[in-house]
Structures are given as C-alpha cells and as structure tokens.
Amino acid sequence: MSEEKKGFFNRLKEGLTKTRNNIVQGIDAVFGGFSSIDEDFYEELEEILITGDIGVKATEEILDRLREQVKENHIKEPADCKQFLIRNIQEQMQVGETAYAFEHRQSVVLVIGVNGVGKTTTVGKLAGQLKAQGRKVLLAAADTFRAAAGEQLGEWANRAGVDVIGGNEGADPASVIYDAVNAAKARGVDVLLCDTAGRLHNKKNLMEELKKIDRIIGKEFPEAHRENLVVLDGTTGQNALQQAKEFGEAADLTGIILTKMDGTAKGGIAVAIQSELQIPVKYIGVGETIDDLQKFDAEQFVNALFDTAADGEEAQEALGGENDERTVVG
After folding, report:
1. What percent of the chain has pLDDT over 70?
2. Distance between CA atoms of 189 and 122, rounded to whole angstroms?
3. CA 262 → CA 18, 117, 233, 286, distances in Å?
4. Distance (Å, rounded) from C-alpha 125 to C-alpha 119?
C-alpha cells in the first residue's frame, strides 16, 4: 500500500472513531459477554447493528447469513464467528462494479442533494481532482436559489483553475444547465460538473426542476456519458437514506457521495444505503481538504471501521482471504 493510501486509511480510521465506538464496541461487548451462541446472542447483535444505523434490511441479511455459517461450520464459541460477521458486513456493501467512467469519457455529472450536505464543496473538490488528472473541466453553477452559492463555487473554480458558467441569483437553474451544456460542447470539455439547487419553493418543485434539467441534458448532449451523484450528510443517519430514496424518484442515481463521515457516530448508514438501494457509494469525505474526498472501497471501509489490518495477508485473513481487483481508496 502506498504512503498516500496509508495516509488516507489512517484518516478514514480516525474519522470513523465515533462510528466505531457506537457499533464495534457494542459488538465486542456482545462477543465478550456471551459464552454460547443462542437466541439472546443474536438479538443483542441485532440491536447493536440497527441502532448503529446499519438498517433493518441489512441487519437481517447479515445475521441470517451468520446463522447459516454458524451451523455450517459447527461453531460453538461466539468469538469464533466474529470474522464471519465482519465479512458479512463487507459483503452487504458490494453492489457490483463501482465505475468511474466519467474520468475517461466526455461526461455530464449532476451533483444533487439538499442544502447543507456539502454539495458545492464536493463539486469543487471533484473539479480539482479531475483537473489534476489532466481533464478539461467546466462547472455549472445551477444552485441559483441559495445566496452566495455561485460565489462559493467560483472560489473553488479559481482554486482548481477551471471555468464556471452561472446565472443571476434566482434564475431558472435549467437555463444555466442549458448554457453550460452548450458551452461544454463548444469548448470540447471533458467533464461538465453541475452544482444543482438543494431547495426550491417546495420538494415537489425541486424534483420537477431536476427532471427538467435531466431532459435538457438528454436533448442537448445525448452523446455524453451521464452521472447523477447524490451527496448525503453522513451525520444524518437514516434521514440520508430517505433523501436518497426521494432523489432517486426524480433522477436515475448512479452513485452516492457520503460527506462529514469524520464527525458522526452514524457511519453505519453506508452499509444500509448500499444494501437497501443497491446504489454504490462512490466517494467518502472525512475532512475539509481536496484529498479528504476519496473513492470509496468497502474493504477499506470495514477494515477502518473494525480497526483491522489494512494491507497484505493480515487484511485478507481478517476478511476471509479473498482477493479482488476493485478500485481501492485513494
């Protein structure tokens, strides 16, 4: 593992401290407090996982699989099934290939989410990372209803060295997207990143505006690869899951960005989101700098959560000994 990856793993592990205290300490207490595997043992685990925001559906599937493994392997001691539990949690977060095609194709990326989740900041960080990869990036400041949103995005654009297309405060967000899409085509832009409104007059208006924006992009730039990434505040727990469901009704979500994971005890929501929605968490944020927004990897996440080995044979042993070729964090 490179120094950069080790550095982010350590920040991730530190950022998940509150979640670890909320979930893992409770799990350790259950494994240390029971001398046999019985129904009370499973009920205690269930309570810990659900209260840790892992969610009812994911918890049921994790424990159903654990029951099967205990029987299949004739396990009698609680401590002997802990690694199975860890592996089951990781497997709940696998939703197939987590692709980052927009890094390599001409793309339009809509970044959506409610106000206050860090949407504009995330757009700025992504712009900086893509520009550093040699991509030609253009920003669309379509969050025209939040005071100073355009100025904030403009500051990120200056920092990243990219251009931004905006409109007057209160302007129609869809008109900004129309202008930005046509500018992207004319300038031969690789990636158009669109910061969208997080609040209009009511939720229905917001969702209709997103549908309108989607139609405009489809009509004006049909050949572009499309991504709809929803930004969710990790500190809000189950509310984040509900937000993802609502935005999913207005847009075909292709990925999730979880922010503020360094300040929450509810990091288990990452498990619930992927298990229930089958939408990949593509990025995770554990701090304020550009480097603190990183590609998400389930194995690294679970390693950091349980403070297990993050590299080499020890990590594979801790998580079941299987190799894979997914994109790693960093």
Report:
1. 89
2. 19
3. 8, 13, 11, 5
4. 10
Kindly give the residue spans of alpha helices, DSSP state H, lying in 202-295.
Answer: 203-220, 238-250, 269-277
- Quick: pLDDT tens for 10-20: 888 888 888 88
Residue pair 284/258 in contact by the 8 Å Cβ criterion:
yes
In the chain the domains, ranked by start, together with CATH numbers, are 101-259 (3.40.50.300)
Q: Report whether 294 contacts 329 (CB < 8 A).
A: yes
Mind listing the pLDDT tens digit for each residue in 155-195? 999 999 999 999 877 788 999 999 999 999 999 999 999 99
**Of the listed ranges 55-64, 193-202, 205-214, 233-242, the one predicted with least confidence:** 193-202
Which residues make beta-bridge pairs with 140?
165, 194
DSSP state of 146: S
Q: Tell me what the pLDDT averaged over the chain comes to.
A: 85
Amino acid letter, residue 92: Q
Q: What angle do CA 147, 152, 156 make, to 5 degrees?
A: 165
Beta bridge partners, 137, equal 191
Confirm if 140 and 187 have CB atoms less than 8 A apart: no
